[in-house]
């Protein structure tokens, strides 16, 4: 029992870190979608992503012809505290809507 308890604790911390990373990934994906859609409609994609992104996330919105690409990166802290942070990334692409006024991208 004494030898198995540290292994069980390590497994628990790894599982909780994985759940935290998946939650952050879902938040990044949601923020990237919001940013791409807002920019495709002529709005401010960075502001839209900032409202939906996880804390500490960075947002990049770029326009290439008739395509908008939004990328959101967020650091995920491991629950052990001594391990390096994991970074999750999500990207979304949207077509620029016809007649959309050029906004801030």
Topology at a glance:
Elements: H1 4-40, H2 45-52, E1 58-64, E2 67-76, E3 86-95
Antiparallel strand pairs: 1-2, 2-3
Protein name: Mucin-associated surface protein
Keywords: Signal
InterPro entries: Rv3655c/TadE
Largest sheet: 3 strands, antiparallel
What ranges have pLDDT less than 50 throughout 5 or more consecutive residues? none
Secondary-structure element string: HHEEE
Strands, total number: 3
- Biggest sheet, spatial arrangement of strands: 1-2-3
Count the helices. How many? 2
Strand coverage percent: 25-35%
- Taking all residues together, what is the mean pLDDT? 88
In helices, the fraction of residues equals 40-55%
The coarse silhouette is rod-shaped
**Separation of termini?**
58 Å
What's the alpha carbon Rg, rounded to whole Å?
18 Å
Which structural class do you get from the secondary structure elements? alpha+beta
Protein name: Mucin-associated surface protein
InterPro entries: Rv3655c/TadE
Organism: Micromonospora zamorensis
Keywords: Signal
Question: Which short descriptors sum up this protein?
Answer:
single chain, 105 residues, alpha+beta, signal, Rv3655c/TadE
């Amino acid at each position: 029992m004494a030898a198995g308890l540290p292994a069980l604790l390590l497994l628990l911390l790894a599982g909780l870190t994985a759940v935290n990373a998946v939650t952050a990934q879902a938040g990044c994906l949601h923020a990237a979608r919001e940013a791409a859609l807002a920019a495709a409609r002529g709005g401010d994609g960075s502001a839209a992503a900032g409202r939906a992104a996880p804390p500490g996330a960075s947002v990049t919105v770029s326009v290439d012809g008739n395509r908008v690409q939004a990328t959101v990166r967020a650091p995920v802290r491991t629950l052990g505290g001594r391990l390096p942070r994991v970074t999750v990334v999500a990207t979304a692409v949207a077509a620029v809507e016809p007649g959309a006024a050029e906004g801030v991208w």
